[in-house]
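Why run this: before we spend reagent on co-expression, it is cheaper to look at a predicted model of the complex and decide which construct boundaries make sense. The entries below are exactly what would go into the expression plan.
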Amino acid sequence: MIATKIIPDFSAPVHIDQVGIEERASRFTKRSIKNESKINGLKLALNMIDLTTLEGKDTQGKVKQLCYKALHLHDTYPGLPTVAAICVYPSMVKTAKIALRDSGVKVASVATAFPSGQSTRDIKIRDTKYAVQNGADEVDMVISRGKFLEGEYNFIFDEIAAIKEACGEARLKVILETGELVTYDKVRKASDIAMYAGADFIKTSTGKISPAATMPVTLVMLEAIRDFYYKTGKKIAMKPAGGISKSKLALHYLVMLNEVLGEDWLNNEWFRFGASSLANDILMQLMKQKTGVYQSADYFSID
Amino acid sequence: MAKASKKNTIKLKFDSARKLAPAPESKAGAKIDPQYDLFINGKFEKPTSKKYFASINPATEEKLSMIAEANQADVNKAVKAARGAYDKNWKKMPPAERAKYIYRIARMVQERAREFAIIETLDGGKPIRESRDFDVPTAANHFFYYAGWADKLEYAFPNRTTSPLGVAGQIIPWNFPLLMAAWKIAPALACGNTVVLKPAENTSLTALKLAEIIQEADLPPGVVNIITGAGSTGAAIVNHPDVNKIAFTGSTDVGKIIQRAIAGTDKKATLELGGKAANIIFDDAPLDQAVEGVINGIFFNQGHVCCAGSRLYVQESVFKEVVRKLKDRLETLIVGDPMDKNTDIGAINSREQLNIINNYIKIGQKEGAEMYQSSADLPKKGFYCRPTIFTNVAQSNRIAQEEIFGPVLAIQSFRTDDEVIEKANNTPYGLSAGVWTDKGSKIFNLTTKLRAGVIWANTFNKFDPTSPFGGYKESGYGREGGLHGLNTYVNVV
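The model came back. Tokens follow.
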């Protein structure tokens, strides 16, 4: 499969100008999103959320509650979409799968020694297979950042390709952990490697490292997706994760998505928000749009 | 083969990106009087001519106000007032006192920023985002900056003695009405000169609002006089025997007329004229940021910018990729109501200018260049032009030689560094240029060889009061902004 594709030389330098990319990213935040654009945007953002719990203290009980929330975001507002997926550790996949049944909400599982990725290839493959066998629709892997920073780009490529194979039918999200790569050049390079190696999604962060997703980092990745699409004709999905907890910021991300990749990407097959508290802020804003007044946070369930 | 042909059909869709719900700025934030008189000697006076002309909103073609037309007698009055204020008051005032007045103007511009932004957009057609985020704050910054210099001239010219020139006649264009007024008035006042300023006839309103501020700031009468009118009013200022200095920003043609008119007199002059800036993208440039810079370089203020990057040179190895990225970016530009906060490209300043631009677009097509325009819908009323790029252009094309002053970009390819330096310099103009490369040494090589007053590296159209601005060749002479901007308003002994 890989032999038929032309793989670029990943050791070649990439050029991203820090000042320029940050300026461009801030320009999207100048868009003023009002009325029906706002309501449509908020509902779309809600439908793009990977509702996430990734804690050492996660239990079956907690995951069941979160799944119920995913299906009943705010029942007093009829006609709301569901979130896109629930994102959990591999050990919780089975619980989530049963709780979500045939609702259409996907189960995503982190894998590959999440979040550090400091383990052997073999263990990462088994971790992935375990998640998939338990019913995960999507796998969120982490790359070996240490190896990447050592310049071992082939290692990263092979690692992603191996996990992709282990995923079978499940869609693979590749977490770059951009907060550890630090520069935009490196983010772009890691994005290219991941896409050529078989990623279905590229994802910014684990949520365990600060900074997590930022608009400029996401912009670098969206532009990588666009260039890859023009070169190969293959669409790749994007998932910024961590740090997006307010509706306004989510709308800025959607404006950016719309102006970089266009309307074909404006759905939850091609874009996700990895977030835990964003949903309630969007619900609060939607109720404000509907009723004209803000309601207390206590009217929105916390699971 | 099937795969290759499929590749060519790949296209991103941006229709929805341009169709956001309206987000208009409210007109209620600004008060525009039905009629404006001339600001002479601290008072608003009716013109001796008794004539008024209409100022319209280019976005809707509706009349905004009636503006007084100053004739020779009015110019005489204004110059007399400026001379009186200079002799009796301003030149004798301790510099720190002068500074206080200029600071006061700066603060008042800031306080009324929203009102200025709204009027600038209504009168000139530029997007409210630009007047709000660029024109007005930068204008206030210029007053702040030069206020600081007023009592520090001995440090600007160490071991030398300076004296003001006297009365400065200042004539400004319609593309940045308030900002150009600030560029002209602030250094003149800081150096101890008095001013007779004439805004362009299409865009007098913010200068007249500035006159109101100057009145409220209690500047001694006559220190700043703002008179409105068209070319003949400007000519009367230029030819007035008691004016010591002419500062002009505008077209190269008028610049030449001014130069002829003041030849043989002892009037000093700074001329900031046309341009046809080269923006140069090398294959090792950060391409997406370069494309963004090119977009800002040519479509900022509908291309009504003397330093607009209207010629683009792209190294052949990345030519196709850059053009593709440009076309995609073009599709996401929102063209329309300048008062909408989401508008990227507003209205062309006047019907006359729109005709000039459309004529050049026709010339470009006739000359065989390949045109691409965004698919944005244009409003039915008002003066609008789609953002336009031309490929398949040579140095010999008129669209690559002449200043269009609109949202029209001429793109050429190049092979080597020497070639692009030669082509970039192959123009009678020399106001600005842009260089896009990740390689520092290449930047320095180009900036030393390009004959242009301002050269940006990996950015474009960046302005700061501390940075001098001005041209080579037919783009004029003299510098405005920064320490250099003081030079042109003092005699140095």
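Residues 27-273+473-492 of chain B form a domain with the Aldehyde Dehydrogenase; Chain A, domain 1 fold (CATH 3.40.605.10). Chain B has 18 helices and 20 strands. Bring this page to Monday's planning discussion.
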